[in-house]
Design a protein that fits this description.
Elements lengths: L4 H10 L3 E4 L8 H10 L5 E4 L9 E3 L5 H7 L6 H14 L4 H14 L5 E2 L8 E4 L21 E2 L3 E5 L6 E4 L3 E5 L2 E3 L7 H12 L3 E7 L3 H6 L10 H9 L4 E4 L6 E3 L4 E7 L6 E3 L2 E2 L5 E2 L2 E3 L1 E9 L5 E2 L9 H20 L3 E5 L9 E6 L6 H9 L10 E6 L7 H11 L2 H4 E7 L12 E8 L21 H8 L2 H11 L2
Parallel strand pairs: 1-2, 3-20, 4-12, 22-23, 23-25
Antiparallel strand pairs: 2-3, 5-19, 6-9, 7-8, 7-11, 9-10, 10-19, 11-14, 12-13, 14-19, 15-18, 16-17, 21-22, 24-25
The chain binds flavin mononucleotide.
Length: about 500
């Protein structure tokens, strides 16, 4: 695994996966446009070494392919982590639902890689406090023309539950207001926001530290939808099979990654009025509108001697965040299967921007089974925000959206197979009747039987006889060659 983002960049360079751009570029929109062109092209990670107004290089598109996403986690495919989790569960075989949920924490702890405290850290080589701790030093990019300002787009926001002391690390964008304040865009369903509510009740200022960069697994872990009582840095240690090194912040008591590139320390005061945040060109492909969010105040900035500033742009999908979400989809499949073992696979295609569309394949066993599974999923962590869930039989490859749509559209009788319900929806949903509360649609696209009132015959999918396939395969290359020769 990598002790720093620098080590990871060396590997990427050797593999032809890093493009250094040394011409001067503007953090206002220009970096965004260049990054966008490469992201759509399956291009390399980008290191902008001459950014107007700052001495610090900007790193974009770090996770923007299946290969780099896997390399960042030190694996050859995200399914490997899912398999590790599945194996541990198999060995421990928990009985009830409560046992299953607590076992997840236990297994991470049992993995023997809890975060480790250190006394000296590269990220505190440079310490800036008071007026010296100015956000103007950082090359914060503006992503899209109608954005409310420049945004930190890959921050690891570190907070602690004031009741349990358990740490949370979440990726919540931060709009720069001025040299010493930003917005704190933790949406209400996220754990940073729930810590904030507790501080609000206690009428106490909330310490917040924000890490940028460091070993890439830390950035990924901050995007993972872990249960509230699980520390993301414990999870990161489990993924990388070595403890995350932490050091105490300089101006508050929160521990921060010793190997990060930059730390911004500060606080959010729950007594202070919220401030307008946004608009922001969001990962839905539309601007999310302005809204009121808490204000983060900077008390110190610490950094490596030669830090890199990591950033990303989101926008019309697919963008880099698709690959972070894809890793989560694969890594968390065994956890969904632990609660709902009939699930064979699931997939959230990029156009559905995670919360809008989930295809699920199941081993259907009884009438109404698809409805049981969709309702189970709406009760499972952030899947509560899923707008449309489509359940298919287990012979459908749900990771192939065109196959999933084809089968689903053939298999449904809309009036019979669609379930509308209501519940919490993503804060970014701009269509729901009310903000954050709206309707959801579950579609049962499985084969129907008499137990579901369907007494007609269900047709077979068209496939060729295997013996014919084998016969034609013995000479088909010859025909292909002749066909290719026609074009010469
Ligand atoms: C690039 C990127 C930006 C994100 N921005 C936000 C954001 O501004 N606000 C938010 O609540 N979630 C945002 N998320 C999603 C959260 O990081 C994700 O839901 C994570 O699980 C939250 O952590 P938590 O479950 O500990 O609260 C973003 C994710 C990515 C990949």
């Amino acid at each position: 695994m990598f002790n720093s983002v620098g080590e990871f960049l060396e590997i990427l360079k050797k593999q032809g996966e890093l493009l250094e751009i040394d011409r001067e570029v503007n953090p206002y929109l220009e970096i965004s446009e260049i990054s966008h062109r490469f992201v759509n092209n399956n291009g390399p990670a980008l290191l902008f070494t001459h950014v107007k107004g700052s001495k610090i290089p900007v790193l974009q598109n770090l996770f923007a392919s299946e290969k780099r996403m896997s390399l960042a986690l030190g694996i050859s495919h995200p399914d490997e982590i899912g398999d590790r989790i599945r194996n541990i569960y198999k060995q421990k075989a928990p009985e009830g639902l409560a046992d299953k949920l607590t076992l997840f924490t236990t297994l991470l702890e049992a993995a023997k890689y809890p975060p480790k405290s250190v006394k000296n850290a590269p990220v505190q080589d440079v310490i800036l406090k008071g007026k010296d701790a100015s956000l103007d030093l950082l090359p914060i990019i503006t992503c899209w023309p109608k954005d409310g300002g420049p945004y930190f787009t890959l921050p690891q926001v570190i907070t602690e539950d004031p009741e349990t002391g358990i740490r949370n690390v979440g990726m919540y964008r931060m709009q720069k207001y001025d040299a010493y304040t930003t917005g704190m865009h933790w949406q209400q369903h996220k754990h940073g926001a729930s810590h904030f509510q507790k501080y609000r009740q206690l009428k106490k200022k909330m310490p917040v530290s924000v890490a940028l960069g460091g070993p890439p697994v830390l950035t990924y872990a901050s995007t993972a939808p872990l249960p509230e009582n699980i520390d993301e840095y414990l999870f990161a240690g489990f993924i990388q099979k070595s403890p995350v090194r932490l050091i105490k912040s300089v101006t508050n008591d929160l521990k921060v990654p010793a190997d990060a590139d930059i730390i911004i320390e500060g606080y959010v005061d729950p007594e202070e009025d919220f401030r307008m945040e946004g608009p922001f060109g969001d990962h839905t492909g539309f601007y999310s509108l302005e809204d009121l969010y808490p204000v983060f105040h900077v008390t110190a900035i610490t950094m490596r001697k030669n830090p890199v500033y990591p950033s990303t742009i989101v926008g019309v999908p697919p963008m880099e965040d698709y690959w972070l979400g894809y890793a989560t989809e694969r890594i968390f499949l065994p956890l969904a299967q632990m609660i709902l073992p009939e699930i064979r696979d699931y997939h959230m295609p990029p156009e559905g921007v995670f919360h809008n569309l989930v295809f699920v394949s199941i081993r259907k066993q009884y009438p109404g089974h698809a409805f049981k599974v969709m309702q189970g999923l709406w009760g499972l962590g952030l899947l509560m925000l899923a707008k449309v869930i489509i359940i298919l039989d287990d012979d459908v490859d749900v990771r192939n959206p065109s196959e999933a749509w084809w089968v689903a559209l053939n298999h449904i009788d809309p009036k019979r197979d669609i379930l509308f319900t209501r519940g919490p929806v993503d804060d970014l949903d701009h269509a729901s009747q009310l903000p954050s509360f709206g309707s959801k649609m579950g579609i049962d696209a499985t084969r129907k039987g008499p137990g579901e009132g369907f007494t007609r015959r269900w047709p077979d999918k068209i496939t060729m006889d295997q013996s014919i396939i084998d016969t034609v395969s013995t000479y088909f290359d010859e025909l292909k060659k002749k066909s290719n020769d026609l074009k010469k």
